[in-house]
Amino acid sequence: MFVIDILAKARELGVLIQNDEIYKNLTEARAKSDNNAELQEKIAKFNLLRLDIDNEIMKPERDEDRLKKLNEDLQALYSEITESEEMVNFNKAKNEADQLLNKVYALLAASFNGEDPNTYDVESACSGDCGSCGGCH
Predict the structure, then answer these.
(1) Pairwise CA distance, residues 93 & 25, whole Å
(2) pLDDT confidence of residue 137
(3) Contact 51, 119 (CB under 8 A)
(4) Measuring CA to CA, how many Å separate 88 from each of 104, 126, 131?
(5) Which pLDDT does position 124 carry in this prediction?
(6) Distance between CA 14 and CA 8 in Å, rounded?
(7) Across the chain, where does the E strand assignment appear?
(8) pTM to 2 decimals?
(9) Cα dist. 126→22, 26, 96, 100, 121 in Å?
């Protein structure tokens, strides 16, 4: 098989991925998150608070009370953002998409390493989370 044939099959795979429910759920969840003005305002405020914290930390004589207050505000805002329905749904969809992508990567890598792609068990493939791993081989 020539490289051009491999790339053609990769394009077919790309089309299959974009027609899959996992991808559709991800794009829908991303759009809902991106189009939620209140959530986006909180994210922008979160980023500004992080800058404020960085600036305060860099001062030669920083105000520890102000820094503490900024960190508390940042944590509270982070909780609001991560607990919002749109962000929860986006993170769930993103995790499902990442799991699929990891399986595809693992199958391709295994194929390049000489494994039989028809029998390779993608369910036992590396999840990317080293905490559940017995070690790379």
Answers:
(1) 6
(2) 43
(3) no
(4) 25, 25, 23
(5) 82
(6) 10
(7) none
(8) 0.78
(9) 20, 22, 15, 12, 11
